Amino acid sequence: MTSYIGRFAPSPTGPLHLGSLVAAMASYLDAKVHGGQWLVRIEDLDRDRNVAGADEHILASLRRCGMAWDGEVTWQTRRQHLYEAALAQLAEHVYPCGCSRREIADSQVNLQALQPNATLVYPGTCRAGLAPGKAARALRLRTPQQPRRVIGFQDRWHGHVEQDITAEVGDFVIRRADGFWAYQLAVVVDDAAQGITDIVRGADLLDSTPRQLYLQELLGVPHPRYLHVPVVANADGEKLSKQTGAAAFDNGAPPAQLLTQSLLPAARFLGLHVEAATIPDFWAAAVPAWASLLRTRHTQ
């Protein structure tokens, strides 16, 4: 079997909720089924949104759930040199952009008025250079224009997925106007540096994958395999998240309550039929249940 290295990469913007537990559980089980390593990476680049102590709370919650990671935990804020090196490597594909989000939104509204069925993408305003009076804000990566670039991949849960990144995305940001590195660049650099072979995460990131595959291609790093699990939604149909008021799943409850109110519901959401009286029993049953689910879905 090929060496397997997976990861769970939470942002320390608050404690883990049921949705993030589902993603953690899926990635952990997939690593166990494949006899691989499971790494934890704290994605703390967005310092304006970080909550003090949230990273340690996340790690403590994983421990209480019985999910032990391999090796040392890494923090993105300690890896700035890697992103700088990647930017230097991408220099010929990058340009400064002076557009604000409002200006981009306004241009998209105008485009829709002229072409009601037009795809809303960055219109390329600064592609040929900053307009007079504009100062550089973000850095964008050029996407191929002629011919347009369609990127496809085989997702282990959803099957074949493809996206025309020229028409559906346009030139995308790799360093934000606030100076922070964009998720798309950081995640590609981190996964390559850590030798990640398999990425298991929520389906809300499915749309980001073609951009990441394109960046991997430009940087000359391997393409991992991907599996995007369904995301948990709230009563209004919105993705469960800290922004939509998702409550922490681990509030210091005793192990028996953590099992019945968090681990078992997360497993059921993933389609796993697991019965257990203790947390160790849960994992002993959940690993083969995940293997069985993969066989059923033909996603090994």
General description of the model:
The protein is of the alpha/beta class. The strands form four sheets. Strands 1-2-3 form a three-stranded parallel sheet. Strands 4-5-8 form a three-stranded antiparallel sheet. The chain folds into two domains: 5-81 and 189-206 and 220-299, Rossmann fold, CATH 3.40.50; 90-175, Glutamyl-tRNA Synthetase, Domain 3 (Glutamyl-tRNA Synthetase, domain 3). The protein has helices at residues 18-33, 54-64, 80-89, 101-114, 165-168, 183-193, 209-219, 255-269, 279-297; strands at 5-8, 37-42, 74-75, 94-97, 138-141, 150-155, 159-164, 172-175, 198-202, 225-229. Strand 6 and strand 7 (159-164) form a beta hairpin. Helices cover 37% and strands 15% of the residues. It contains nine helices and ten strands. Helix 1 packs across helix 8 (255-269), helix 1 (18-33) packs across helix 9 and helix 6 packs across helix 7 (209-219). Mean pLDDT is 89; it is low at 111-119.
